[in-house]
Amino acid sequence: MAPEDRHQLLQVGLDDFLYVDRDDLCVVDFINHSCEPNCGFTTATTLVAMQEIPAGETITFDYAMSDANSFIEFSCRCGTSTCRGRMTGEDWRIPQLQRRYAGWFAPHVDALIRAHHDS
Ligand SMILES: [Zn+2]
């Protein structure tokens, strides 16, 4: 897989990825990662606003909400005060994120968190 193609991936299950084709849906160009996102997940493929989003503002979600794979790692320059500096496939393990995004994680990540707490 070419590195540029990874930007169009959405992890929808522990081993499942949805590839959003740029020609299909240009919306992918308007959705980004942020460490202070304005959207979260209600299903693996449903992104919902967590707060009012002013017109023109980028739609963002924290990739920790859906990504649990090490190949989706990058230096984050989202510029928010809580920026982690690096997004990794292990970020769902961070307790502060688990609290902040409770109810907004994609189902497969939510299941990982629950399994992690039960063990
Ligand atoms: Zn950031």
Q: What strand line-up does the widest sheet have?
A: 1-2
Order of helices and strands: EEEEEEEEHH
State the shape: globular
**Number of separate helices:** 2
Structural class: alpha+beta
The radius of gyration is 14 Å
Percentage of residues assigned to helices: 10-25%
Uncertain segments? none
What would the average pLDDT be, to the nearest integer? 85
Total of domains: 1
List each distinct ligand once.
Answer: zinc ion
Largest sheet: 2 strands, antiparallel
Distance between the termini: 34 Å
Q: What fraction strand?
A: 15-25%
How many individual β-strands?
Answer: 8
Tell me about this structure.
By secondary structure, this protein is an alpha+beta fold. It has one domain (3-118). The chain contains two helices and eight strands, in the order E-E-E-E-E-E-E-E-H-H. The protein has helices spanning 95-100, 107-118; strands at 9-11, 17-19, 31-33, 39-43, 46-49, 59-61, 74-75, 86-87. Strands 1-2 form a two-stranded antiparallel sheet. Strands 3-6 form a two-stranded parallel sheet. A two-stranded antiparallel ribbon has the order 4-5. A hairpin with a 2-residue loop joins strand 4 (39-43) and strand 5 (46-49). 22% of the residues are buried. The model has no long low-confidence stretch (mean pLDDT 85). Residues 35, 76, 78, 80, 83-84 line the site of zinc ion.
